[in-house]
Amino acid sequence: MRKYFMLFVSVSIFLLAGCTDSVAGEDDKHNLTLAHNHPTSHPVHSSLEKFKEEVEERSDGDITISLYPNGELGDEREVIELTQTGAVDITKVSAAALESFRPEYSIFGIPYMFDSEEEFEEKMNDPEISETIYQSSKDIGFVGLTYFDAGMRSLYTANRMVETPEDMAGMKVRVQPSATSVNMIEALGGTATPMAYGEVYTSLQSGIIDAAENNLSSLVSSKHGEVSKYWFYTEHAIVPDMLIMNNELLEKMSPEHREIIRTSADVANEYHKGVWDEAMKEAKDEAQNEMGVEFHEVDKEAFKEAAQPLHEEMKQDETMAPIYEMFKGDDSDEES
After folding, report:
1. Which of 38, 137, 239, 325 is the most exposed place for a label (fewest CB within 10 A)?
2. Residues 193 and 170 in one domain
3. Beta-strand runs (E) in 79-210
């Protein structure tokens, strides 16, 4: 049933977009659709509202954006495919969801790729690095506009304690549906269970899974802290959210409007840093003091050592080796 509903939605959006463009004609006016899977209370939604505001103000209303949150237009894979065809114009998805479309995005799923959020920001703010990633999908219908920091991902469990990779033996851990995420948890000692994000709460509650890995926001925004009482600072990955756009539409726009889209994306990126940091402080406070979640440190060096085979494997991969080198630079020679 969902399949036919999504087909109806796709056709409806595509026809609406076509009508909008035909009416606008020479005026280069656009009513764009922007889909994402977060609730309106999520900081990413606030950042997307900022993007919408900037685009509409800078274009004097010639470009308008309609936001569709909460997965209203489909899950992440579905909205990526809709963006490829142009049925949806712009989409915010996790980088993990993009790796099945372009392997370059799998770089973010390698555990301990970045030693800190500061290092991640430094790399992603390097135009040579970011544009290489953003343009990698141009030949399949979409390009990246910017990224939104999604924080460092750590492990949280329903009722098990973790200090070293050995403690994860037999632990069923929910991961994003991506090969890199599966390999990551397997390397760190657990049993990976790919699962849609919306199923995590009930799966933790019922014991289908023992744990999940995500950022602090997930404890509060999706109430995972109600069924997971232990948070462990593995800080094993930084997997950003990516804002992507249908490439054909972007190239069809006037140079002025293309610049407005890209400038507005940069503004939204900067704006997001503030709202994200504040949201994470509030999330930890609420999880700890209202939900009763306990926060624990782990033997991070042991986890980093367990992850090294994945680094070595990527350095030997013909496609990914140049991407790895671009991110790690001279550091790659120092790793064991």
Report:
1. 325
2. yes
3. 90-94, 142-148, 152-157, 172-175, 191-194
